[in-house]
Design goal:
single chain; Heat Shock Protein 90; Ribosomal Protein S5, domain 2; 2 domains; 8-stranded mixed sheet; 11 helices; 15 strands; binds adenosine-5'-diphosphate; binds magnesium ion
Length: 339
Amino acid sequence: MPIQLLDNRLISQIAAGEVVERPASIIKELVENSLDAGASRIGVDVEEGGLRRILIEDDGCGVPADQLSLAVARHATSKIDSLDALEAVSSLGFRGEALASIASVAELTLTSRVAGADRAYAISPHIDSQPRPAAGAPGTRVEVRELFARIPARRKFLRAPATEFKHIRHAFNQLALSRFDVGFTLRHGGVESAALAACSNDDNRKQRAAHVLGREFDDHAVAVDESAAGMRLTGWIATPGFSRGQADRQYSFVNGRPIRDKVFNHAVRLAYRDLLHNQRHPAYVLYLTLDPRQVDVNAHPAKAEVRFRQSRLVHDFVFRSVSRALAAVEARPHEARTV
Ligand code: ADP
Ligand code: MG
């Protein structure tokens, strides 16, 4: 075959492979968009583990009608406009790829209404490229149907709805723990699975964490708040007694962004080293904040991984902070040291 340029749709479908792995990745991208839009309430409603339908609704700033077709175009974003802006980026999105990627592998409808507009407008790129008037309250609604319907090779990799919903639940939990000031609801097949009101104080925040990590977490959680070298670590770690057979109760955030990071996880594990058997995993919800220029958030297409400029420094700081919090618990007479 001679060399030829790929058409735009195929380029998007290939790129979508990096961003849209499964329904949970769609939830993550769309809720991040709602958070970037300043929403105070976000609803996530899925059917059949998101395979049949995903609906995200927010009360954020909305997209003006004349920008709807740009919103679903590739490499179109309102969040950065230069390399400088990328290096200091504080929004969750910046690649301008999510909506276009999702639209290339599913049927997407974006309905939005900005404050002050007398109506909403909707665009469905698989049907037409022009927005049409629609019903809707101020804010944005994104509906995604028929994920991978026309891409059997990808559809094959999806699991049963119950498994896909587990992944959705995890993504939802991460997002809910990343913004306590926002209210979140999750529904699956019409049944409410979580309703988290916006939190106004530390008690509410701890309750939300306990809702996500399980009731007993509330009794075993130890607050962490340590600062050094321009970094701060806050959140909760569970006493060793609340350890798990699986590493499924570990939530880490860097500058408000849910991440998984080997350096970070290793540092926490190391702090628990003498308190937990090898097969047990600590439970924690930890927030690291540091100068945004010390961390590269553009290291991964789904932005789930970050790269620290000085990973040794981060590792030592997290290790020392968690060790100190654990030592304080050990010193408490009523906390039995359980393995
Ligand atoms: P990115 O988030 O990287 O900018 P997306 O493809 O996710 O790229 O979104 C493209 C643009 O559409 C965003 O930059 C934003 O201007 C707009 N947008 C998407 N979702 C929303 C939303 N829920 N509320 C308001 N604007 C949105
Ligand atoms: Mg986005």
